[in-house]
Amino acid sequence: ATRNAAAYFVDRHITEGRAEKLAFREADGARRVLTYGDLAEQSARFAGALLAADVRREERVAMILRDQIEFPVIFWGAMKAGAIPVPLNTLLSTSVYQAILMDCRAPIVIVSAQLWPVVQPALADNSFVRRVIIVGDAPDEIEAYEAFVDGARPAETAAAHEDELAFWLYSSGSTGAPKGVRHVHGSLKATADTFGAQVLGIREDDTVFSAAKMFFAYGLGNAISFPMSVGATTLILGGRPTPDGVLSILETEQPTIFCGVPTLFAALVATQEARGKAPTHSLRLCTSAGEALPRDIGERWEGLWGCEIVDGVGSTEMLHIFLSNQPGDIAYGTSGMAVPGYEVRLIDEHGAAVPDGDVGELLVRGPSSAEGYWNKRNKSMSTFEGHWTRTGDKYERTAEGRYVYCGRTDDMFKVSGIWVSPFEVEQVLIEYPGVLEAAVVARDDHDGLTKPAAFIVMKDGETPPAEDALKEYVKEKIGMWKYPRWVRVVDDLPKTATGKIQRFKLREEA
Ligand code: 3SK
After folding, report:
1. What is the pLDDT of residues 391-418, one digit of tens each?
2. Complex ipTM value
3. Ligand 1 neighbours (beta carbon < 6 A)
4. Contact of 229 with 208, CB cutoff 8 Å
5. What pLDDT does 480 receive?
6. How many angstroms is it from 4 CA to the middle of ligand 1?
């Protein structure tokens, strides 16, 4: 039997009698719906259109698409044709699209109409792109999606091996240029069988809402592969997840699982606290990833909503979450333990195991690691070390075996010879009344000695705290040497599209 992931996630539902079941429902815009039957038919038709357009096996299909029902159709349709879908972040600049489209050499680019003004100039000198398709209102001279698929003969799902390349994702990381991360067909099922089944316990009667977008590995699992592994339904939000918009979806659309990122949970807690009433909802579980969830946010959320947040850590390279809390066994402020099916370990700079209580770099081993980076041999060799993948994250393991995030390898610094975790200081800063978000970086004082510097964002309408009071608070909570010697109040923090604080930018400013 073929191990093409589309056979398992899409076609299987037809033979199992779920053709009429709702797979996707848009919660904004045109509020369209897509059943499992529609998805099977439309993805096969899109695959047929790609073959008719002479897109060959393993050629890349660049997707610059907002979350909308065409996203899963095109993602699975490309795989059915044996081509490689490459979903791209929808918030990039023209110059980054230009670089990525040259790097992946996609002959065909599918773009949401709203994103066309940014993407169009990126195609100017690209001789690889043979065809551009617009989803939505297409300008006259550009081919519309409906015209592209109209009349196409539905294609059979191409036979594929589970170890064969299936799709790429571009990892932005918290620094540097995006890298093409190449994933195989078997990895999608591997993450659904591990985190999806054994942590979320995802079920056919679940309705999932992921504020994290589908182009992001975290959103791809939450909104596409996990619900589709069991025939559940996904709510799609095309626009930006504002606190008011998300709260309204949680109240009116009644999802049972909500997947967010720490910044959004912080904003939702602040908004809900200001409203001062308990929301009505049907949530049974929430997940958080992208960055470590501050303890205070997790506790306040659970107090308001009576629903746990399962905080975990994953990576684009591992496709989804491999270290996580478990429902019913949550320790806020920690990333929990290895997800069943994965192993993790901590090493020092010489590769030796570090004892509990010491900080080390986290390595992970499991069934969904990527094949490597595209055209980045050195980087691939230093990240994927045989079965083990280096994460670049620093962690500490507690005596109970839970992992506590300390920061990115590049973000950690020493003060008076002792390691400081920016994340630990940030957690204390956001406990201070009125502080919404915080980021801490190293800065040299006038003697050239490294000290913490903090950037804080205040909640709406709150006055910034007296600097000395804030410093004293941190000193008392976590130790003399960790308090920020400088505090700057800013309107917002620089973040990647997936919500990770870009501390390297703040280091430059500090
Ligand atoms: O950053 C994360 O924690 C994450 C989680 C799941 C999938 C991908 C990523 C980057």
Report:
1. 999 999 999 999 999 988 888 888 877 7
2. 0.98
3. 217-218, 289-290, 313-316, 320-321
4. no
5. 83
6. 24
Using DSSP's 3-state secondary structure scheme, residue 237 falls into coil
pLDDT at 415: 85
pTM here is 0.91
- Ligand 1 mutation pick, 320, 423, 501, max ligand atoms within 8 A of CB: 320
Q: Which of 316, 323, 408, 500 to mutate to test the pocket of ligand 1 (most atoms within 8 A of CB)?
A: 316
Task: Determine the residue type at 338.
Answer: A
Pocket-testing residue among 89, 319, 321, ligand 1, by greatest number of atoms within 8 A of Cβ: 321
The contacts of residue 61 (CB under 8 Å, 6+ apart) are: 50, 55, 74, 78, 83, 84, 85, 86, 106, 108, 110
Centre of ligand 1 to C-alpha 366, Å, is 15
Neighbours of 376 (CB within 10 A): 16
What average pLDDT is seen over the chain?
Answer: 95
Where does the pLDDT of residue 175 fall: very low under 50, low under 70, confident under 90, or very high at 90 and above?
low
Q: Cα–Cα–Cα angle for 330, 331, 333, nearest 5°?
A: 130
* Closest residue to atom 10 of ligand 1, CA basis: 315
What is the 53 CA–ligand 1 centroid distance (Å)? 34
Query: Do the beta carbons of residue 310 and residue 287 sit within 8 Å?
Result: yes
CA distances, 187 to each of 167, 281, 309, 358, 503 (Å): 10, 33, 25, 32, 31
Give the pLDDT of residue 369. 98
CA-based Rg of the chain, rounded to a whole angstrom?
Answer: 23
Q: At what angle do helices 422-429 and 467-478 cross, to 10 degrees?
A: 120
* Tens-place pLDDT, residues 221-250: 999 999 999 999 999 999 999 999 999 999
Residue minimizing CA distance to atom 9 of ligand 1: 315
Q: What atom of ligand 1 comes closest to residue 500's alpha carbon?
A: 1
Rounded to the nearest angstrom, the distance between the alpha carbon of 212 and the centre of ligand 1 is 10
DSSP 439-492: EEEEEE-TTS-EEEEEEEEEPTTPPPPPHHHHHHHHHHHH-GGGS-SEEEE-S-
Strand partners, 311: 288
Instruction: Give pLDDT, residue 149.
Output: 98
Strand partners, 323: 313, 338
